[in-house]
Amino acid sequence: MADESAFDGEGRHADGAALSLVGEFTSVSTRDADWTEKLDVYGRLVPVCVVVDMQDSEITCFWEPSPHGYRSRTTVSFGEALHVPEPFGFAIDTAGF
Description:
By secondary structure, this protein is an alpha+beta fold. Helices cover 14% and strands 32% of the residues. It is built from two helices and six strands; from the N terminus they run E-H-H-E-E-E-E-E. The chain has helices at residues 31-35, 37-45; strands spanning 21-25, 48-53, 58-63, 72-77, 81-84, 90-93. It has a four-stranded mixed β-sheet with strand order 1-2-3-4. Strands 5-6 form a two-stranded antiparallel sheet. Strand 5 (81-84) and strand 6 form a beta hairpin.
């Protein structure tokens, strides 16, 4: 999720500071980048990040960004509900994964 103004500039990418929630689905070809480079960048800026690890059948929610990355995280196996904290405050039903 991003504020609409994040897309006002030129180029393919939104302004990272305007993002409020990011979701990533891993694949064999992107898994390393999803768990390293992307998470390092998001962990400094984006309030909530959800990574759906298709290879390990788990979903992880990260929150509380800091200059050193996310301070909090929770992981559940597919089939369990994953709580996404405020400012969203909802649960993801992973039974369909």
